[in-house]
Each structure stands twice: as structure tokens, then as C-alpha cells.
Amino acid sequence: MTTVRDVITAAVLPAGAAFCLLGAVGLLRFPDVASRLHPAAKAQTLGLLLILLGTAVQMPLRHAPVLLLIAVFQMFTAPITSQIIGRTAYRTGALDRRLMFRDELADRLARDGTPVDGPDRPDDPHGPHGPPPEEADR
Amino acid sequence: MNVLYGTVLATVAAAGLLTLVRLVHGPRALDRILALDVLVTMVIAGTATGMLLRKDTTSLPVLVVLALLAFTGSVTAAHLIEKREGMR
Amino acid sequence: MTRRRHARSVMRHVPMIAWLWLLWVLLWGSASPVVLLGGLLVATVIVAGFALPPVLPGAVPRPLRIGRLLFHLLADLVRSGAVVAWQVVRHGRRTSAAIVEVPLRVDSDLLITAVAEITTMTPGTLVAEIDRGRRRLYVHALPVDDEQDLVRRKNAVQGVERRVTRAVGAGRRHRGGVTGRDPEGGRP
Asked: Which UniProt key words apply to this protein (chain B) (predicted)?
């Protein structure tokens, strides 16, 4: 029984640590907030879940539910956090629009008459309505 | 097994240091909030591994509290930023 | 209020009370009588004091399919962790992202939340903005290099939506006309 546990932990714990590390590298390497959210939300959550799993297997059984609770909580809150940070980043103009192939939200806002006044965004040749006039003089 | 735990702990710590670089570097407040959020998950991961290494479970409640705090903290901070920037 | 309606409104709160109770017992880590009784008391007081609106009118939860949805969610999380790790190593600074507009068919707060959550967990997509009134998600996708990628992302999110509706039902059906101010609202 102990060996089975040990094998699971030995497989899962290093994988979790690796995902944590890659998430951190992603946080460093990706160019803007929204891209950094991807490793933060996914690699990081996966890493933590794997580490919690590896820990839970080794623990006395009565502690497992608490770890499961943390895992579930993390899984449900990580998307919410990233959505709120992403939304705030968009609304405060923190996204680098030069990195974006297409921004359909900006197109939508332009059609509604409330264009975003973020950092400069190149003219979008594919956009159905072109860039809004307010953006031209930024 | 202790060697394994030690290696895992060291890897998580290295990841934490990298996140710390982002936290210090910014450049925006949102980057820092995100980095802090990630850092707390790494602290959770590290504490869990540390429990295995030290073979005691006293810090289990700490994990729960951290998980709760990280979420509410990040969300509140992001809201504050949105409000502040919106007022300009 | 007749007795039957009263009973029904009490029944509606039972799952929430049970969940809070379970949480309480788990967090205390023991099942002594004091913890059990206190938990039941606290849960009841909370549910009575902070009543929530019914979250999903007309939902038909199907446990088996919800289980499958959760399994899918875990599988997606593993896949997206791997994918994003690969992107970190491979692309790094030179990524090209896009914000994709995805019209949804579901029209309830809970379902849209569920779709948004699972979308964030699927590889390469992350919900950045939710337009509740028009039932749209604005999804930050990474990497997107051409039109085909855009369409693929959109289809992926709508696939998530299909899975969610299959698991809990679509709730109240939304017939067109209410959100008629948007002419492009319909799906192709």
C-alpha cells in the first residue's frame, strides 16, 4: 500500500513542481498582462492541483478532504480571478494591442460608439468597420 | 522520499523567485497583483510539500486560509485598480 | 402562504444548507456533536439571513453528465497546462493573441458563469469580458495567427457551451426579440 502511494507521489509531485516552474517562466516571458494570465490560470492551477494530490496521498486519510477542498476552491476561483484581472486590464488599457491579431471587443465598442482609448492599435485591415476615429490621434 | 520532497520544494522555491522578479518588475499594478496571486499558490504548494518533509500537519489550516485570502485579495485589488483608473 | 408552498421554499434551501454544513465539518476536521450541531445552526442562519435568488429556473441536473463535465474539465486543465507550458517554451515573447467575440445561446447567470469558467480552463482561451445583456463572451485567445484560428476558438467555446447545456439543461429558453438591438446576434 505504501509503495503504491509512494509511486503516485513520486510521479505527481515533480510534475506539479514542473508546471509551477513553467507557469513562473511564462509569467516572466509573456509580453502583456492578458498573455501572462494564461500560464497563471492554467499551468499554475494544474501545478498546485498535482502537488496537493501528491500531498494528500501521503497524508492520513482524514486530512484528504481538506486538501480536496483547497483543490476544488482553487479550480473554481482561478478562472474568476483571471477573468477579473483580464477585464480590468482591458478596461484600463493595459493590453498591448500591437500584439493582437484581432480585437473583436474593440470592434464591438467602436460600433456602440464607445471606443477604447488604449495604447495605439494598428489599423485592422480585417475589421468590418475599421478603427474608430478617436484612436487615430493617439 | 525526502530527496524527492527536497527537490520539489527547491523547484517551487525557484518558481517563487521568478514570480518575485515579475512582482518587483511590474510594470503595471495588475502585473503585480497577478504575480502576488501566483506567488500565494506557490506558497500553498510549498507549504504542502513542507508538511510532507517535516511529517506534521499543523499547517493544514494555513493552506485553507491562504487559498481564501489569495482569491479575495486579488479580486479586491483588481476592482480597486479599475475604479482608480476609471476616475481619471 | 399555504403549507405546501412553505415546505417547497424550505426544500429549495436544503442543498445549500447541506453544502455549508459539510464545509463546516470538513474545516473543523472533526465530527463531534458540538461541531455538527453548531454547523447546522450556522448554516441555517446563513441561508435564512442571506437568501439567494433561485439560481437556475427550470434546470434539469443530470448527475451522470455533470460528472462527465467535471471529468472533461479536469482533462482540459491537464491539456491546457501542457499546451501553455509548451507555448511558454516555444513562443515566449513573440506570441500573437486575439480577442474573440463568442455569442452564446444560454441565458442564465449560472450557465454563463459555468461556460466562462470552463472556457478559461480549456487550452489557449481565457475569458476577459462578459456581456451579460447580449450573452457574449469576449475570449482572449493565445496564439492566434490567422482567420482559421479565430473560427476554431469560437467553435471550441461554443462546444463548451453545448457540453454545459447537455449536463444541466438550457434553463429558460430564450426566444429572440428581447435582445433585438443587436442585428448580428444570431449564430451562423
From this structure: Cell membrane, Membrane, Transmembrane, Transmembrane helix, Transport
